[in-house]
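so my prof wants the structure for this chain in the tokens format not the other one, which i didnt know existed until like an hour ago. anyway here's the sequence
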Amino acid sequence: MLNLIQHGTKTDRPGLLIVHGLYGSARNWGVIAKRLSDARQVIAVDMRNHGLSPWYDTHSYPDLADDLAGVLQNLDGPFDVLGHSMGGKASMVLALTRPDLVNRLIVADIAPVTYTHTQIQYIDAMKAVDLSAIEKRSDVAEQLEGLVDDPTLISFFTQSLDVKEKKWRLNLDVLAAEMPKILSFPEMTGKHYDGPALFLSGADSDYVKREYRNEIKSLFPKAQFAKIPGAGHWLHAEKPREFEAAIRTWLG
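here's what i got, hopefully its the right format
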């Protein structure tokens, strides 16, 4: 069972399940989840090999979707489901394979395609950090400054640090080995999700190109598209208020 962080209590509106991206955690979504919980129950999960959830030797999207299905079955779903990046792909596979558990789908800055820009360089950066003498997160942030060029990402990565135990709460070896699966998207011939779906992207991101829309529409016939100006791939971190407003408007 995945580790969960619950915000708010059940209301007459559908609950919202938030699924983080690669190297993320439920904690990364704390502010947005808490704010959205004023109108509905919000549950954020740690995906396998991340945060406080169990570590496994595999990290495929069918695996991740099965994990989410288990969570929603225990929560007496269906829920609205919001997934970013890797979490967006996992949420798409969940909706395509278990549509009974997904009331509405929000996919943040990712498409059901195979990408060529790897994220392995960040695993290399985290592995290069000497954790033996750290006393606080800033000690690691200082080491990462010479390895990661985006300060936003450095802050993001250090949220997955267990300072007391001097280790990452990320199964870096398995994530590295499974990177080809993480960058890809499984074959979904004959599958489609007929519920409402929003593909919300950063206007400055190249992850959801216009030429991907036919593929998206074939799997998600009711897909709608929106962009947040001035935001890149990490749109919820770069423009949190605008992201929150877009989610609220669409969910109603």
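also thought this was worth mentioning. The two ends are 30 Å apart (CA to CA).
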